[in-house]
Amino acid sequence: MQNPYARYKEQSVMTMTQGDMINLLFDEVINRLNKGLVSLEQNDYEGSNAHFKKAQAIVTHLSTTLDHQYEVSGGLASLYEYFNYQILQANIKKSPEPVEEVLPMITELKEAFSQADKQVRMGHTG
Protein backbone atom coordinates (compact mmCIF):
# COMPACT_ATOMS: atom_id res chain seq x y z
CA MET A 1 0.00 0.00 0.00
CA GLN A 2 1.27 3.45 -0.92
CA ASN A 3 2.20 5.88 1.84
CA PRO A 4 -0.71 8.36 2.27
CA TYR A 5 1.64 11.37 2.13
CA ALA A 6 3.25 10.10 -1.07
CA ARG A 7 -0.19 9.55 -2.56
CA TYR A 8 -1.21 13.11 -1.54
CA LYS A 9 1.93 14.60 -3.12
CA GLU A 10 1.37 12.63 -6.32
CA GLN A 11 -2.26 13.73 -6.47
CA SER A 12 -1.40 17.38 -5.79
CA VAL A 13 1.17 17.40 -8.62
CA MET A 14 -1.36 15.81 -10.98
CA THR A 15 -3.95 18.49 -10.20
CA MET A 16 -1.62 21.50 -10.40
CA THR A 17 -2.31 24.29 -12.82
CA GLN A 18 0.36 25.25 -15.32
CA GLY A 19 1.07 28.33 -13.21
CA ASP A 20 1.51 26.23 -10.07
CA MET A 21 3.92 23.95 -11.91
CA ILE A 22 6.02 26.86 -13.23
CA ASN A 23 6.19 28.34 -9.72
CA LEU A 24 7.28 24.99 -8.32
CA LEU A 25 9.97 24.66 -10.99
CA PHE A 26 11.31 28.16 -10.33
CA ASP A 27 11.33 27.45 -6.58
CA GLU A 28 13.37 24.32 -7.24
CA VAL A 29 15.85 26.18 -9.50
CA ILE A 30 16.34 28.84 -6.80
CA ASN A 31 16.65 26.14 -4.12
CA ARG A 32 19.24 24.19 -6.14
CA LEU A 33 21.27 27.30 -6.96
CA ASN A 34 21.38 28.31 -3.30
CA LYS A 35 22.41 24.78 -2.28
CA GLY A 36 25.05 24.84 -5.02
CA LEU A 37 26.44 28.11 -3.66
CA VAL A 38 26.59 26.67 -0.13
CA SER A 39 28.37 23.58 -1.49
CA LEU A 40 30.88 25.83 -3.31
CA GLU A 41 31.57 27.73 -0.08
CA GLN A 42 32.31 24.42 1.61
CA ASN A 43 34.55 23.31 -1.29
CA ASP A 44 32.11 20.45 -1.90
CA TYR A 45 32.54 20.49 -5.67
CA GLU A 46 30.70 17.21 -6.16
CA GLY A 47 27.70 18.63 -4.31
CA SER A 48 27.77 21.96 -6.13
CA ASN A 49 28.07 20.13 -9.46
CA ALA A 50 25.00 18.01 -8.66
CA HIS A 51 22.92 21.02 -7.57
CA PHE A 52 23.98 23.19 -10.52
CA LYS A 53 23.33 20.40 -13.02
CA LYS A 54 19.84 19.85 -11.57
CA ALA A 55 19.15 23.61 -11.81
CA GLN A 56 20.31 23.56 -15.44
CA ALA A 57 18.06 20.61 -16.22
CA ILE A 58 15.05 22.49 -14.86
CA VAL A 59 15.94 25.69 -16.75
CA THR A 60 16.34 23.59 -19.92
CA HIS A 61 12.93 22.04 -19.28
CA LEU A 62 11.40 25.51 -18.87
CA SER A 63 13.01 26.54 -22.15
CA THR A 64 11.94 23.48 -24.14
CA THR A 65 8.34 23.80 -22.97
CA LEU A 66 7.95 27.42 -24.11
CA ASP A 67 5.00 28.03 -26.41
CA HIS A 68 6.59 29.87 -29.32
CA GLN A 69 3.30 31.20 -30.62
CA TYR A 70 3.76 33.99 -28.06
CA GLU A 71 6.23 36.78 -28.80
CA VAL A 72 7.58 36.76 -25.24
CA SER A 73 8.85 33.19 -25.69
CA GLY A 74 11.84 34.32 -27.76
CA GLY A 75 13.01 36.63 -25.00
CA LEU A 76 12.44 33.97 -22.36
CA ALA A 77 14.39 31.42 -24.41
CA SER A 78 17.34 33.84 -24.53
CA LEU A 79 17.10 34.45 -20.79
CA TYR A 80 17.01 30.73 -20.05
CA GLU A 81 20.02 30.21 -22.30
CA TYR A 82 21.88 32.94 -20.41
CA PHE A 83 20.91 31.46 -17.03
CA ASN A 84 22.22 28.05 -18.09
CA TYR A 85 25.44 29.60 -19.43
CA GLN A 86 26.05 31.40 -16.13
CA ILE A 87 25.30 28.27 -14.08
CA LEU A 88 27.73 26.34 -16.29
CA GLN A 89 30.40 29.02 -15.80
CA ALA A 90 29.97 28.87 -12.02
CA ASN A 91 30.26 25.10 -12.16
CA ILE A 92 33.34 25.06 -14.40
CA LYS A 93 35.18 27.88 -12.62
CA LYS A 94 34.01 26.81 -9.13
CA SER A 95 33.05 30.45 -8.67
CA PRO A 96 29.83 31.77 -7.09
CA GLU A 97 29.75 35.07 -9.03
CA PRO A 98 27.94 33.88 -12.19
CA VAL A 99 25.14 32.28 -10.12
CA GLU A 100 25.01 35.26 -7.76
CA GLU A 101 24.46 37.42 -10.85
CA VAL A 102 21.50 35.43 -12.22
CA LEU A 103 19.83 34.40 -8.96
CA PRO A 104 18.07 37.79 -8.49
CA MET A 105 16.97 37.70 -12.15
CA ILE A 106 15.52 34.21 -11.74
CA THR A 107 13.76 35.28 -8.54
CA GLU A 108 12.34 38.35 -10.29
CA LEU A 109 11.17 36.24 -13.23
CA LYS A 110 9.48 33.80 -10.83
CA GLU A 111 7.65 36.73 -9.21
CA ALA A 112 6.56 38.03 -12.62
CA PHE A 113 5.17 34.60 -13.54
CA SER A 114 3.43 34.39 -10.18
CA GLN A 115 1.78 37.80 -10.66
CA ALA A 116 0.73 36.95 -14.22
CA ASP A 117 -0.74 33.66 -13.02
CA LYS A 118 -2.74 35.46 -10.31
CA GLN A 119 -4.10 37.93 -12.89
CA VAL A 120 -5.11 35.12 -15.24
CA ARG A 121 -6.86 33.28 -12.40
CA MET A 122 -8.76 36.43 -11.44
CA GLY A 123 -9.79 36.92 -15.06
CA HIS A 124 -7.78 40.07 -15.66
CA THR A 125 -5.66 40.07 -18.77
CA GLY A 126 -4.76 43.75 -18.86
From TrEMBL:
It holds the Pfam family FliS. Keywords: Bacterial flagellum biogenesis, Cell projection, Chaperone, Cilium, Cytoplasm, Flagellum. One of its GO terms (biological process) is bacterial-type flagellum-dependent cell motility. GO terms for cellular component: cytosol. Its main location: cytoplasm. It is found in: Cytoplasm, Cytosol. The keyword Metal-binding does not apply. Belongs to the FliS family. This is Flagellar secretion chaperone FliS. The lineage of its organism: Bacteria, Bacillati, Bacillota, Clostridia, Lachnospirales.
